[in-house]
């Protein structure tokens, strides 16, 4: 339904049994370092970690992961994995890019996989090291559909969004969301407002933690009579859900990265949909390729066309979404794929 993404893209304990590859134990150690959201964020980091686990199981090897507590941990965590003999290192998130690049350049024999950043620090359109594979997502395309959907179900005429930090991998969701609402207004002669993002700046918590700041920003948007809310930034959706529940109003929540209905059933009744990124399969495939000696640094860019991004099902909200609106989303998805509708983003080309 509705372009659902079919991609299923301290150290933890390693598997106790050694696997076999071609009858012999594979000499390969894949590793991952999280951003400050942690591997239990039920979203961004968790999805990437699931890809690592699936790849290690398929290859029959152990793995290592290290969880960052703050941005200051990124470089030391990556270098620590280098020192532990990792053959492939996945860095989860835009903010890890500088540390990942430095380590990749210093260790050309290690394969690096960068989630959510092309690692093009000099801006020449090319990844800055030959041993880095970017896994990135044009989530504006799927967010456009979520914005159109939100404008179609709102009863108050106002929808809201806020993010963890004003960085491209966060604002790309907000850009697409606003474009989708604007498109709905143009087609239907309505004036649905988007609060929390004006196309350049908006409401941000300054981090990716579920905390009072996130809850207060969500509450501020709720106080402005929004009835659909898109929080972008891993676990900050938990604070948004708490504010929605306290309001006593019917306010729809939109998840990001994973299908949050599946990863966190506690907020399931609130979820209109989720803007899905196939990080788990992207990581899985890249690690398996590296483990088999077939590492390919060609960037993967998830789009609606290759199903790297998409909308999750409506789940509990399905009966509240008019059939004609659901059909329209299918039409819009195809129009974006065909190039009849251009969704602007920093990855669009």
From TrEMBL:
<dbReference type="InterPro" id="IPR050957">
    <property type="entry name" value="BMP_lipoprotein"/>
</dbReference>
<comment type="similarity">
    <text>Belongs to the BMP lipoprotein family.</text>
</comment>
<dbReference type="Pfam" id="PF02608">
    <property type="entry name" value="Bmp"/>
</dbReference>
<dbReference type="InterPro" id="IPR003760">
    <property type="entry name" value="PnrA-like"/>
</dbReference>
<keyword id="KW-0732">Signal</keyword>
<dbReference type="GO" id="GO:0005886">
    <property type="term" value="C:plasma membrane"/>
</dbReference>
<feature type="domain" description="ABC transporter substrate-binding protein PnrA-like">
    <location>
        <begin position="32"/>
        <end position="338"/>
    </location>
</feature>
<dbReference type="InterPro" id="IPR028082">
    <property type="entry name" value="Peripla_BP_I"/>
</dbReference>
<protein>
    <submittedName>
        <fullName>BMP family ABC transporter substrate-binding protein</fullName>
    </submittedName>
</protein>
<keyword id="KW-1003">Cell membrane</keyword>
<keyword id="KW-0472">Membrane</keyword>
<keyword id="KW-0449">Lipoprotein</keyword>
